[in-house]
User: Fold these one by one.
Assistant:
Number 1:
Amino acid sequence: MANSFMAQWVYTDTVKDHFMNPRNIWKDDEDFTPDGVGEVGSLACGDQMRVGIKVSDGRIKDLRWLTYGCASAIASTSMMSEMAIGMTLEEAYHLTPQMITESLGGLPEHKFHCSVLGDKALRAAIDDYLEKNGIENTYKAKTARIVCECKGVTDTRIEELVKSGECLTFDSLSQKTGCSTVCGKCRNEIIALLEEYKHIYGK
Amino acid sequence: MKPIYMDNNATTQMADEVASLMRDNLTLYGNASSMHTLGRNASSGLEWARGMCASLIDAESEEIYFTSGASESNNTVFNIARELIDSHSKRNRIVTSTIEHPSIIEEVKYLKEKGYRVDEAPVDSSGMVIVSELEKLLGDDVLLVSIMTGNNETGTIQPVKKISTLAHACGALMHSDATQAIGKIPVSVKDLGLDYLSMSAHKFYGPKGVGALYVRKGAPIMPFVHGGHQEKGYRAGTYNNLGIIGMGEAARLAAQNLEREHDYLWSLRERLRKGLLASIPDIVINGNQEHCLPGTLNVSFPCAEGESILLYLDMEGIEVSTGSACATGSLEPSYVLLASGLDVELAHGSIRFSLGRYNTTEDVDTVIQKLPPIIERVRSMSTRKV
């Protein structure tokens, strides 16, 4: 007896396509020597990502990735790889989770935060490339956004402190940078950023 | 393509006999509480079902209270305990475990927030409650001990009989959520020494939205849905007559098929376990392999994440569940697996196969054939390497 209801797939058709046929996977047997490598995420949260890039003439010439992650992590990293190849380093550095998610035709809210880490892994790979080659990282400063207006604390500053493990609580961040000590309206945003970076860097 | 459904601990396909009896009684619209003929007809169906549920668990009909399912039954037991504690009972503590169903885990969280005293006994690496640890938590201030009969994720059967003896020795009441065990292993309230037991029809080929609470004659009970004389005034609300009749038939079948069902599910499960061990390298079988619900097989695949495995299997028409956080929308993987000390990566990479009456050996063989390339594929794109 046939039932009357049929569901769509869990995610969009584009997600499904990238999940079923992921692009640019970093295969074991492939001779891919990256110019820069970045890794973000943590097993505790169930998503970990590694991105390797080849750079020539200031552009991403090629890219490979690996992920320990769910369907949307696989699909979003696959999509990111297609978008990033051919971009200038600066363009690639400014690739956002929103851009990846839009290209995928959308993701559920709870997936957006935990599984779209490809852009962060890509930025980490670009950072690695620049550092290895002694090139000044001018993108980092440009992407910084002031979160605490009273004390002029940027998201990049918070990211660095979390990444290094120096500040892993709101109180320690506040003590270190003075953020949220004046008007306090950035408190919730700082807490959200703190949680996000802790997730990204597996702290 | 007919899907291969191996998620029978989530819910089961209704038995043909159940569906057929429910179809026949779809128009039996009488209110079982009415005195006229139509009402009495409905009531006789309901009382027949009560008898079937009672005999399935070795209880008396008058000890069965119909509910909307095991979550309600579980909550009712904890509400009874809370009511007794509030009435200045000398006993004011509840003892349970870390691997209970969410309807108990969340209830415990809620009670603790309200200031009630609840202790959770730990489990060993096979997911079995450590009796000696639980014993340390007992005392003459304990009102209720609640330990599930068999775990939904690992399938591990709990030492309920031993625990009920200990609970009664210190004067406490004993409850067991037997939802996953009913119809798979013999469950006798007398043998297990239970004061309360929860069950749910849809886990043993009955309809959804209906279950029962067993309350031993003489054990405390009080109403939590007020407003009617149904269930002796303890659970108001017009009867879900059709659902209850369906549960009655499911209970009748469960009692009739119990031994055969157990042996059949175990043979499928063992075929699957051996097949996967032989065809996929580096896998970990979770749960207790000796004291185990016959249809449950929980496997961890190191370096592979569970939601991906689940969805690749789904593409092949194979339906299972996972302990991965990604499937729950939280960042935490299965608390049951973590409680048994499983590594967080293995919990994320866990798949639960729960077999049922309608699975065949061909189904099992198909899974043994389709899963290895999926695991290989997920591992080949993983940052983690075996």
Number 2:
Amino acid sequence: MKKVFDGSVDYYQVMDEQGNIDMSLFPNELDDSKILEMYKYMSLARAMDAKALSLQRQGRAVTYAPMVGEEATQIGSAIALRKDDYFVPNFRQQGVFLARGFSMDELFLYFRGYEEGNMIPKGKHALPGAVPVATQMQHAAGLAFAQKYLNTGASVIGYVGDGGTSEGDFYESLNFAGVTKSPLVAIIENNQWAISMPRGKQTAAQTLAQKAIAVGIPGVQVDGNDVIGVYKVIRDALANAKNGPTLVECITYRMSMHTTADDPTKYRPQEEVDAWKKSDPIARVKIYLTKKGLWGDKKEQDLADQSLKAIDAAVEKAESFKGDPASMFEHIYSYMPDILQDELDAATASNFWQTQQQPPQRENGE
Amino acid sequence: MALMNMVAALNNALDLLLKENDKVVVFGEDVGKDGGVFRVTDGLMQKYGEKRVFDTPLAESMIAGTAIGMAAGGLRPIAEMQFAGFMFLSFGQMINHAARYRGRTRSTITLPMVVRTPVSGGVRTLEHHSENPEIYFSHMGGLIVVEPSNPYDAKGLLIRASHMDDPVVFLEPTKLYRLFKQEVPENMYEVPIGKAATIQEGDDLTIITWGTMVPVVKNAVANKKANAEIIDLRTINPLDEKTILSSVKKTGKALIVHEASLTFGPGAEIAARIAEKAIFELDAPVMRVASPSLPYPYPGYESFYIPNEKKVEEAIEKIMSD
């Protein structure tokens, strides 16, 4: 007998729960202004998340998947992306959209139930959110392949949850990226719960990062509530992407429900949630910034006020949008087939559309 | 012009497409050195290099899913699924994503991609190698579904499909790959998508068919010396309703012939449209000839399953006696 393979997975943490930094891992290019930027985006993402949840509860948004608790994974990775890099989200990456310059009114328009909020403006390098679990990783792999083929120098981040790692599409996409050496960074946003299924029941694998080993690519773990650690690991993976893909497991926690249709108290002990509160991704950066004299109550209050103002303006804009049902028909093919035109004509001629309600909409001046 | 069978015509189309646009990539299982299990991609890797014509790992959902990502990233992928029965493993990617991307991003992301796959039976092969999947991909909307019945159309439709900014499911009847040759221009040309071909004019009866059933219908009509108009649909979705209705209004009789199984088959959709829009011009009930409503059998029984000339001739007799 001889050993033919040996594998291991490293775990990274750069900033601990008390805001202390491991200088041996600290990315030198990160100055305080960049850390402040991360803090502000994480705070804004949390405030936006709370607003979206509240809109859903008021009947002003469709079913919503909150991201509270996962800010460091999303903002740390988004800030690590370079100008031309792409991201391919699942359905919970609102923070990534924010940090990549998508406007909040587009996001709120999507939360309101309109595909018009799903548009990817020219020059923005992303694919829209994807709801069927892990299927988007195949798109991320293909998009990464295209970057290599076209020699753009850009890389692609694909996001998947812990539950998604059980899907065949997850494995297939990593396998493709590995064998074609495509510039893909696959991020597992491991928030410990796939609706009611805990991470421990999802797989017998000790880590999710080790799934990289099966396809012959590097896999690492990082404290997903450590925005500096996430940034460092993703930035290193992106820098190495020209040589091939990396799988990064970000260990974080879903502080809220899977979606607004879910009640986690049915299957999840409150003690577990309380324990994770101690490793909150925003609190530790606040301690760090405060210790350095860069942050204080006044600044916190100002940021909260600004965020709320920006959020309210975005909601107002999103809620003033009036959908045109004809747009359903107009974006299916590159041309309008006769049979679809007939259906559109029949629909516009009939009284049916006039009798239907749009989702709640803001009246002028309200 | 050159005499080509369907395999040669498709190979020629891919060659021209690869030459025309360096964003075109051709990939799938065994399409490289091996040239595909039916040799449709024969010689293309040798000619254009492994960067543009390449073998993928064996995973159909991945072939479709990465094609979506490539198309979103500016390439024009032409992917091959080895057999239609295996393509069902990519059904989620095709239906959840390929079909919806344009709509759900309001045309800000479009997918210029073609997924080719051999379809239909009659060649005595293994299980899951003879499926007729056109209705599955046509039903929801968002995917263009094309199925040629001769070398000329195969080449022109594939070129058209690759030039379009839509996801196209391109179905190639295995039985017709090498059944006959035809004069095919060697240069680039397009056959329109969404447009049926009236391959024989007639006054007494309209027969609507496609794929493997086209030669069967032609023989049956010749045997019966029927004055039938034969429409080769070529594009299953979006359906060319106009050509069907104008012919049926002329002849007053409609017979639909397909290899896909009967129940909820494509013939049901065509018959319903004729009933809705031309019923007062009909002088006989719409008839369908199709395979039985059961999964495609193992080849020992396939000749008892696929409609043949006799079955079509009986249907012609019946509809003409009404």
Number 3:
Amino acid sequence: MSGAEKIAVTVTDIVPLNDLVTRFEFKRTDGGPLPTFSGGAHTVVEMRDGDTTRLNPYSLMSDPMDQSAYTISVRRDDQGRGGSLYMHTKVAVGDEMVISYPVNLFSLDLRAKKHLFLAGGIGITPFLAQIKQLERFNGHWELHYASRTESLGSYVDELTSHHPNETHIYYDDQKQTIDLVNLLEGQPLGTHVYVCGPKGMIDWVRQTAAAEGWPREAIHYEEFLAPQPGKPFEVKLAVSNKVISVGENESLLEAMERAGVDAPYLCRGGACGQCETNVIDYSGNFIHRDHWLDDEEHAGGQKIMPCVSRFEGKTLVLDR
Amino acid sequence: MTIQFNDESFRDDYSFYNSERAIKRFPFPFHEDSYMYSVNMEQHRGGPKDSVYEKRFDVDEHYVSEMRDRALVLADDPLRCQSLPHMTLAGWDLLELIMVSKSEDYPDLFELHRDGNTWRWINKPLGIDDTFTFLDEATLPYGPMEYITRQAQGDFAVLDQRDDNLWMDAGMVTTQADWSLDFDIGMNFFEWHAPVPLAHEKGIFVRALKFLLNIQQGAPARRLNWTMTVNPLLDTSPENYHKWGIQKTTLTPENIGAKQHLRVELQTFFRLPRSNALVFPIRCYLCSFQDLMTVPKWGRRLHRVVRDLPVELATYKGFIANRPMMLDYLENFDDGLPTSPGIWPDLETEPPLKT
Amino acid sequence: MTKFTFPESIKSRPIYGTLEAREGSAHLLVADAHGAEALLEVATPEMMAKAHIMYIPKGEDFEAKLRALKPASFYSGPSYAAAEPRLLKTLEDARMGLQVYLAGTEGLMGQAMNAAMAAGIPYTAIQTEHRGSVARRMQCVHCKGITEDVETDPFVCSHCGLNLFVRDHYSRRLAAYQGVCIDAEDPGNVPEPKGIYE
């Protein structure tokens, strides 16, 4: 079996926060306590939508010490393949769902003398859990949170009222931007910076911090990529001796699973490296979208991350 | 109580012994007639009834005496238990894991009563009944890791996970196969394994690390490792090597069956939830050659493994000088018959020694 | 001989590089003896404008040349122990972006690295370049005492007197290599000491 251990849960609360974001609360269907977790962890939510099964990762945003319920926030993506739309339109209070045990690919470095959080949009969610964890242990932290507009600023009120001194809010439509160079230069030695948000923001923070002389180990980031739709393509799986078709709205990983081929995974978002698959033969072009392989590997044509990457061309033979 | 605890020592007069039950459940580490490093990991979710795999943390007849020996070691050298400052949360994770597991797996020996953060822990074999506040170090006589590992057999390495590596940032190490926590604390996975020969070149540690980094909550793993020890000495530490090393020279053809012990580590790996650290319990089991030879399959196999082991490994495991004497003894228990696959004794099906 | 090529070894043994000038908000350069040569090679006027050089001459005569680099702050002192309070204060006051350059003997680099790591800089971000003596700082695993400037293998622990052999196993936290009793299994049988790299 692939992925983390599973938990059967019931949807106990659904709260629309604004035009785009809705919060979901889950409790164990058997009434027992949920596992505790570490701030920054995500859970993979299974969505059974007719014949289609989607598994999407969402950061846990509730208090890591609270074993009574988990909460996640889902941003609706009208252009996506339908996972977030399914959550927004088809899931109701009382529904039974399956989620994974918490998995953390974005954990705090507990040695840090200070934690500097930079959030963009829905990227705020892992920080909500990390802040609760740090508050419990008197950790030193500071948050800079950019949102497109005031009305889309999920959890801004909660953050500014509970943590007025640590929280700094920026609204794009009011031309407010994080003064990143000054912010980074002022941090005491031993500070770690964490960024979660759109790809452009992550790249900006990583590049600026590196240029300011920040060590690689002090820069943490997480971006889950949703698999993007694309042209259908065919793949030969050499080990299982099957030829499968990857549809327009499914990922290569999902197509393999649909064909009964077990491939390991944790995040399904191009970050964890679990589903890394060797390419045996190909003729065509890869559309690499993951954060896991480096540029050289992306150019090398020997590996693919089937959770988010696709292929266009005549033949693709994989070692699965 | 279901377990009769031995009153025995692991030093001085070495009164340690294995009952017949303990011999039968000894985790013999060789699944075939030869040995080489491998990433021999498997899920740790129970095993055959009464085997050392059955419970999350095996408690056996040596429990009380091993804990007494640990207390003696710590009184001599408190540096055997250390935790870097950022590892306190992982210590609480470990305390919870062991208390919950033991109270569920051995309800007649251990009880845990939780009322919010007020916890009452009862350890009947050691006569402990403590009430404390979870996550408040001031309410325990030691730090959380030290408190609970003074009550749990085996060594414990608590590993921080960051930068795609594991870091030995805390531990309780008093029954070790000749490595020093005080020296190795703070090292990463490759560094603390640096002295191990051959395995780096075979890529063993790269693959093992990849596996361990991905161990998730609720899905622990395990493997066996082994070495050799003369006398049932738990504390084969480098710190005291200048005192115990000489014991290796006391083997004679007459006493080797009783004095030479196969030392097996049952290594398990659990993800710790609040800290995202990994705990690596290293449980030591000792069995004398003469007790092992009561299982015909193990007698045949141990001879073949010791005979064919590469020189580098016999040197690293510290028995190269004694290997000829071991083989003289062991060959009496190898009649050349084939052995069944797997580690289990198979007493019902394997033929007795041909004489 | 101020440059030495260390033989390949196990994975806990530090590997030293060649200092290179890096972008940073400030620069801290620590060296002893011939380590000064590495600082002279890496220094640029731009770096020196934001640099603090700490130097332990150990009898070598590089002070005037280092001063001539015109670092923003310069210190010369008799030993690492004497320099340590100043080093710790410098690290305590530093901001992210500080670049640390260490040059000279293994003992000096190891101890200064330890201080910088404790202040929050990952060791991989700390540059090192070995120059000068190849003597080692050794910890006796038995008595825990540190013996400085060990040149032979085996050697006698300066604290407990045991005969120790020199391992390549190295602890960054202790800034020392491990020394282990060589005659535990055959007391008195101690080979003739020779140079560590002979």
